[in-house]
Amino acid sequence: MDDTETKAEESVPAAQEENAEETVSQNEILYRHFIRMVLGAYLIYLAYRTYSARADIPAERLVFIIAAAAVFLLAGIWFTAGSAVRLIRDSKLPPKEGPAAREEENEAERSASQATDKSDHLE
Question: For 105, which DSSP code?
Answer without folding.
Answer: H
